[in-house]
Amino acid sequence: MGKEKKGTMFVLSSPSGAGKTTLTKKLAENNNNFVISISHTTRKPRSNEINGKDYHFVSEEKFKDLIKEKNFFEYAGIFGNHYGTLKRPVIEFLTQGKDVLFDIDWQGTQQLKKVKDLSIVTIFILPPDIKVLKERLLNRHKGEEKLIVERMNKFNEEVSHWSEYNYVVVNDNLNICYEKILDIITLEKKGIRKKQNLDEIRKKITQLTVN
Ligand code: 5GP
To answer: Is 24 in the pocket of ligand 1 (CB under 6 A)?
Structure first.
């Protein structure tokens, strides 16, 4: 497949509002070997978002063209919008030896895992409890009740994909969660995969999805 890809892809997925975007940014800020993969999306920008930095905001037509031209590594329909990762920038970064961070959902993760010749580590982030998740969503989408209900309803479905990931980390506290992820990444770069306590994870998932 041409040039060797030296970097690793680190995927962070989570139900909306579990704090993953903040974590991805913190990881990239503090580690200069990381770059964040900037997705394309057809959703409208939020007031604090910058085109080309948070996302490449594009029209449905443009997105469909990119699909047709087979430019995406992966793409998915989420909450009525499209989201996708372009192949070219990712391949370039990996070839340069950079590690690439992805903030994508379980559908995209499933697709990336199928790509050959790539080194990929997948991490699923859980919110500490359902109340905290709702508070985060209320904060982010003030006045958008319908959207909040929609995202809460999606929660159980998203969480059901936890076992497809190499790691599950609970975001009780941003700094601790960050350190745990950094620890995973550092060990993975040395070729070490830490064992997870699956019983503990199952217990947490049951707690979160009971209602
Ligand atoms: P938001 O609209 O809140 O920024 O993101 C909604 C969901 O889309 C999040 O779960 C986020 O991880 C996911 N997402 C963002 N970019 C991509 C992408 O390129 N591909 C996929 N499959 N999911 C994405």
So the answer is: no
